[in-house]
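Let's sit down with a protein and look at its sequence and fold side by side. We need material for that, and I hope you will provide a protein of your own picking. Once you have written the record down, we can walk along the chain together.

***
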Amino acid sequence: MTNRIDETTVTEWVEAYVHAWTTNDSGDIEALFAETAEYHEKPYTTAWIGRDAVVAGWQGRWEWQSGGWMFEWQIESIVGNVAVITGIGRYDELGDFANHWTVAFDDAGLCTRFEMVNEEL
């Protein structure tokens, strides 16, 4: 990416992410990710490569995520086209998790690589 992303871009993207997590709508999810995006989670073995795989993987979690949840977050840093976001996800069915996201963006503000580390609280 030749341009730097800014706090507004990251904030709008995270708000759209939370909205998509709420709707589970394929269009809302697709709008977040570049066609060749990668989505990785640790300690889980999630490795969704390509927007279609991200959408399918995301929608495969609907049963437990639709049980009720909330997400509190903040931007920790932005360097070039990469943002680090921390938060706490509170799921009625799964419990609470600390989240550490590293998100790389393209020039259009779409995610090209999403890496999340989850830690059960």
Summary: The mean pLDDT is 92. The beta strands are 33-42, 47-49, 69-79, 82-91, 95-105, 111-120. The two ends are 35 Å apart (CA to CA).
